[in-house]
Design brief:
GO molecular function: 3-oxoadipate CoA-transferase activity
Radius of gyration: 19 Å
Oligomer: single chain
Protein name: 3-oxoadipate CoA-transferase
EC number: 2.8.3.6
Low-confidence stretches: none
Order of helices and strands: EHEHEHEHEHEHEEEEHEHEHHHH
Helix content: 25-40%
Catalytic activity: 3-oxoadipate + succinyl-CoA = 3-oxoadipyl-CoA + succinate
Distance between the termini: 40 Å
Largest sheet: 9 strands, mixed
Structural class: alpha/beta
Organism: Pseudomonas putida (Arthrobacter siderocapsulatus)
CATH topology: Glutaconate Coenzyme A-transferase
């Protein structure tokens, strides 16, 4: 029942051409330690499914992404993810760009093992013109309404980052927003969870139970990764590292910028990464963003 593993163990489950989902939202609670491990791996030709943040840009910059299924790709304070922008402008990606609600509905359809779910999201917009693979369906009831049939976003593997987990696969998201991580977990054949704190076995109180948004049977592996969401935020532990994100964004405009970023922050592993970012004391003191 001990599901603990390393990030390298989890990434070893990936194969070229897989469809991979990443939990979190933009620059918030992304499984970045796992993303960096994917960058170090040889896996390629991935279909990436995400409410996108820096994981999208980094994987695009490293040439790992064949297709991107997304609602947005942003660093929030830096509105457009810079390496996603470069890949998009270069025309090197297959894309399914949908409304945020459609995206959530696609995850929910996969989580429910349905081929699609009907929605009004996307109607009367260019989403169907730009994505001709999306179909509409007429209600079989008296209303006869025509709705968009959002296809299930079935995932081979999902990666999510949580605040607390145990070795059995129980998880707690203690920040203010669980986002849609529970749907990523349910939509995937395998789900790997990285966490800030790892316990032998959680004994959940009634109050804690509401933070346990998906069942442990859905979890294939647990990775202890303190500061594993950095440079994105992981409330309430730490905020996003805007100075790091600014350096990252600036590298997209520099000759050889991505290679320099990888050499400094990715190639040497997580311990070196934390040292490069001021260590636990600085990373743990990053101010929480205020909205």
């Amino acid at each position: 029942m001990n599901k603990q593993m390393t990030a390298a163990d989890a990434v070893a489950h990936l194969r070229d051409g897989m469809t991979i989902g990443f939990g979190g939202w933009g620059p918030r609670r992304k499984p970045m330690a796992v993303v960096r491990e994917i960058l170090r791996s040889p896996v390629k030709d991935l279909t990436v499914v995400a409410y996108g943040g820096p994981e999208v840009g980094m994987l695009c910059a490293e040439g790992k992404v064949k297709k991107l299924v997304f609602g947005f790709a942003t660093l929030d304070a830096i509105p457009l993810e810079p390496y996603y922008r470069k890949a998009r402008e270069a025309g090197g990606l297959e894309l399914l760009e949908v409304d945020e609600g459609m995206f959530q509905w696609g995850l929910r359809a996969a989580a429910m093992r349905l081929p699609f779910l009907p929605t009004r999201c996307g109607l009367a917009t260019d989403v169907t013109r730009l994505n001709p693979e999306l179909k509409t369906i007429q209600s079989p009831y008296d209303d006869g309404e025509v709705l968009l049939a959002m296809p299930a976003l079935n995932l081979d593997v999902a990666f999510v980052h949580v605040n607390v987990a145990d070795r059995l696969g129980n998880t707690l998201v203690t920040g203010p927003d669980p986002y849609f991580d529970h749907l990523f977990a349910r939509a995937a054949q395998q789900c790997f969870v990285s966490c800030e704190q790892l316990h032998e076995r959680l004994e959940l109180t009634t109050e804690q139970a509401r933070c346990n948004t998906f069942e442990r049977y859905l979890v294939s592996g647990v990775i202890h990764a303190p500061f594993g969401a950095h440079p994105t935020a992981c409330q309430p532990e730490y905020g996003w590292d805007l100075s790091h994100l600014k350096r990252y964004a600036a590298s997209a405009g520099e000759e050889g910028g991505w290679q320099a970023y990888v050499a400094q922050y990715v190639a040497a592993g997580e311990r070196a990464y934390q040292e490069q970012n001021g260590g636990a004391e600085r990373m743990g003191s990053l101010a929480l963003p205020v909205f």
